[in-house]
Specification:
Elements (H helix, E strand, L loop, with lengths): L19 H26 L2 H8 L3 H5 L5 H19 L10 H16 L2 H12 L5 H27 L15 H12 L1 H9 L3 H24 L5
Helix pairs in contact: 1-2, 1-4, 1-6, 4-7, 5-7, 5-10, 7-8, 8-10
Length: about 230
């Protein structure tokens, strides 16, 4: 009788963390999947099982990085709201005057910041503020600090070769206050509207006109010593 050949041995399946060179890609895939599921289901309706399926990842891989769904939600909000602010990079603003360059930079910032998914995630974070009080307060404070630093950088770059550089409002020790005034005047009103208005397309169409009205007011205040 013919002897049966032994069945080939199956390769051992390894669980746990992937090699270091792939870890970043796995983390990104999990966070992207979690954001998608949280936005579709809300925090309560989302499950690690569904997130794992969307991420094409095993639950052990997720739990090796995030202890539970709360930790995963915190990581998603932190990455998509805070990290995105720090990563913002604007193209060189167009325009021959400081007013035109500021309008260009502010419009770019608002069109980028009022992205529909980012606003939806902010709405979700606000809705879950009772469940995540520390997250809500931390995100609020940190987002304000990061956006102020972003404003300082933008204003510093735009005014360094302009007559505004000699104004007290743009002195190094005053620039943080000036940047905050700039953001509170131009960015914050549109952000509040975005959080409470459903039709973001209509709001997006209003950004350029809003910036064109607000920037001259801001510059006039700076030139007349109204920003202190």
């Amino acid at each position: 009788m013919l002897k049966k050949k032994p069945a080939p041995k199956r390769a051992k399946v390894r669980f746990g963390r992937p090699p270091k060179e792939l870890a970043g890609e796995v983390d990104t895939r999990i966070l992207d999947a979690a954001r998608k599921v949280f936005l579709e289901r809300g925090f309560e309706g989302a499950s690690i099982d569904e997130i794992a399926e969307v991420a094409r990842s095993g639950k052990p891989t997720i739990y090796a990085r995030f202890r539970d769904k709360r930790a995963l939600f915190t990581a998603v909000v932190t990455r998509d709201i805070l990290s995105r602010i720090a990563e913002f990079k604007a193209e060189v603003p167009t325009g021959t005057t400081i007013e035109a360059r500021l309008i260009s930079a502010a419009s770019t910032l608002l069109h980028w910041g009022l992205d529909s998914e980012r606003i939806a995630l902010m709405r979700l974070a606000i809705a879950e503020s009772r469940r995540f009080p520390d997250l809500a307060s931390t995100v609020g404070r940190t987002a304000r600090d990061l956006s102020t630093k972003l404003g300082v950088r933008l204003l510093g770059e735009l005014t360094q070769a302009d007559e505004l550089r000699a104004l007290p409002a743009f002195a190094p020790k005053q620039l943080t206050t000036t940047a905050r005034f700039f953001l509170d005047l131009i960015a914050v009103p549109m952000l509040f509207r975005a959080l409470f208005e459903v039709d973001l397309k209509t709001l997006d169409a209003e950004i350029d006109a809003h910036v064109a009205r607000s920037v001259p007011f801001f510059l006039a205040a700076c030139r007349r010593g109204g920003v202190r």
